[in-house]
Amino acid sequence: MIKIYNQQLQLVAKVENAYGIGYDKNFNEVNWAEFSLPINDPKNLLCKAFNFVEVIDKDNYIGMFQIVPKLTSKTNKEIRYTLRHAIGTLLGDVLFRYHQTVNLTTRENIQFILDQQSTRHWVLGVCEFTRYFHYKYENENGLLGPLFAIPKPFDVEYEWTYNTQVYPFELNLVAPSTEVSCIIQEAHNQIGIEKDEQNEIVNRIYPLGYGEGVNQLGIEKVNNGIPYLEDAASIAKHGLQSYVWVDKKFEDPNTLKANAAALLKKWANSPPAYRVKAADVSSITKEDIHKLKCGRIVRVKDSDLGTFDLRIMSEKKGDIIGAPGEVDLNVGSLTSDMATTLTDLQRKIQINEAYSQGSASQDTRTYADNCDENFPAIIEFPVDPDCVYVNKVILKYKTEKFRGYTRGMKSAGQVVKSVTSSNAGEHVSTETSSSGGGYTNSVTSSSGGGSLETSDDKTFITWTAVSSNVMNPLGQYEDHYHETTLQGNWFTHNHKFNVPNHSHNVNLNIPSHSHNINLNIPGHSHQMSINIPGHTHENEYGIWEAAVTPSNVAIYVDDQLVTGVASLEGEIDIVPYLSKDSSGNINRNYHTVKIVPNDIGRVVANVSIQQFIQSRGSYKK
Q: Which of 325, 327, 275, 270 lies closest to 300 in space, CA to CA?
């Protein structure tokens, strides 16, 4: 039965006249279907491009599809419609520019892809896997390729299943059953069988990812330094069969290794593939064991080829109405064969053409300055976030004498206060002695003498003389006195001294002697304040060097001591000392080199970084 829905999933018609209805279901690939209508059927007008078509094979629901191309044939008077499974709606969106997911679970990575839909046709249902692979996408035309790539690194079987009987449609990633659930055998439902024994054996794989030349990503870092994976049992059986597998989409060595391991498991012992033509008798028997469905494990019993259990990799019916019982099956190993994988690699190569490439770049950071053990030389340099591979980081350094350029200084005024105190006095005894005396002769001479004259015309003394004749009663003169007064400058006078020419001779004889001085200084303190006004000193310019040179240096890279370095100069690759993340990868940020001399000096150094950079930039949605 064929039902037509518009792009809003509204039923618009049931197509009764459809014929040649067929389908081709493939394990973990896009399914296809087809049907025809007479050229004059009016319902051709409803079969528009990208309208949805539901295909049902009696009681077997095939799925929801979209009309893609249609072929009109006037010769056969029909229009043939090709249908692509509804999962193909994911081809209508793109991943523009660069996207990266790191350390997300499988569910989160699937959800990241589904979140890019412009119209939310699909939602995630069941996800039975939890892996932490890194994924990077760039300019992907369609979301289906990135979605199908998510489980590719798994080393176990997986199966995509779809529920298109609900909307939004439901997508599931499950672990398929490994139990036999159906059977094909002669004289029952087997019509014909072909065995294709493949000779494409690969038992040693050299995986290479992003980059070029020495910068191309390998697995040595995560594989004990070995650049390949191999299957020892297959080598013993088939001999060494090596293959260089290149997929530049991979930029993480763990993801690259996991994908290579999955391929090795497929290729190391490639089993034969079988093409079986069988009869679908389930509609008659109603037995589940007779339902030959894609993805189921079938037990094939053949008198010539033996009995074996393999997965049905594809299920195809050409005409569910005209030949309902005829089904063509491709039965292979539990994993896809190498030929299928190589076909997929061709698609990956086309995708890689759209991926941005990069180039090796050189960056140099220099340092030349004075330093000592308290103020070391410090050089900072970045490892670019878009760096794919750090080729080398070379530190070149030498130590010289301290170098100065001026002797002057400038000072503002200030007050300096100095206090000296003592809790107790002290006794100081000083003795000075001499072994003998001495004789000193000193002569002073003058060319002539001199005179000195003094005078005074003032009253020098007053003298009064009084006389009295006093008689006593006896007529005798008693004791009496006389008073005389002298006035005037009677004593005015002057003095004059003359000093003749002369000289003095002094002879001093100092005998041998000593001096003892005892000082008792009591407890005291001194306080002094000095006010220095603002002033400047003129600079005296000129280059000069210190007399000493450091005798050795210590070098630290990201705080890790570098061992085995030369004393005063050298050249070393410091990549082993750069800080790294938990996966052992060099951190994409700034790193620091510190050179510490054991004395004042001058260090001249440079760090040269050679790295492989992607041409992406920092675009974000």
A: 275
State how far the alpha carbon of 216 is from the alpha carbons of 147, 149, 207, 210, 253, in Å.
25, 21, 10, 6, 11
Q: What are phi and psi of 284, to 5 degrees?
A: -95, -50
**Spatial CA neighbour of 205 closest among 250, 163, 140:** 250
Kind and range of the H or E element at 542? strand 541-545
Both tokens assigned to 335: 């994993």
Residues 140/113, Cβ–Cβ less than 8 Å? no
Residue 592 pairs in a beta bridge with: 380
Q: Retrieve residue 406's tokens.
A: 């001026």
pLDDT tens by residue, 233-286: 999 988 999 999 988 778 888 889 988 998 898 888 877 788 899 998 888 888
Q: Please tell me the predicted confidence (pLDDT) of residue 415.
A: 53
Helix (H) / strand (E) containing 501: none
Look at residue 248 in the predicted model and tell me its pLDDT: 79
Provide the pLDDT for residue 523: 74
pLDDT at position 173: 97
Tokens coding 540: 């005296």
Residue 249 contacts residue 344 (beta carbons within 8 Å): no
- The answer to whether 175 and 156 have CB atoms below 8 angstroms apart is yes
Which residue reads 């394990």 in tokens? Answer: 27
Provide the 10 A C-beta neighbour count for residue 552: 13
- What pLDDT is attached to residue 269? 80
**3-state class (DSSP) for residue 226:** coil
Count CB-CB contacts under 10 A for residue 6.
14
Measured between alpha carbons, how far is 482 from 504 in angstroms, rounded to an integer? 55
Q: What is the pLDDT of residues 104-119, one digit of tens each?
A: 899 999 999 999 999 9
Q: What pLDDT, on a 0 to 100 scale, did the predictor assign at position 51?
A: 96
DSSP 471: B
CA 342 to CA 334: how far, in whole Å? 17
Predicted pLDDT of residue 480: 59
Residue with token string 């530190």: 395
Instruction: Name the token pair of 108.
Output: 């989160």
Distance CA 208, CA 248 (A): 7
Only one residue has tokens 């995560």, namely 222
Q: Tell me which residue of 397, 383, 371 sits closest to 592, measured CA to CA.
A: 383
- 169-174 vs 122-127, strand pairing mode: parallel
Regions of the chain where pLDDT drops below 50 = 334-343, 346-357, 435, 443, 446-447, 460, 617-621
CA distance 43 to 190: 39
Q: Is 566 exposed, middle or buried (0-12, 13-18, 19+ CB in 10 A)?
A: middle
Rounded Cα–Cα distance for residues 444 and 450 (Å)? 16
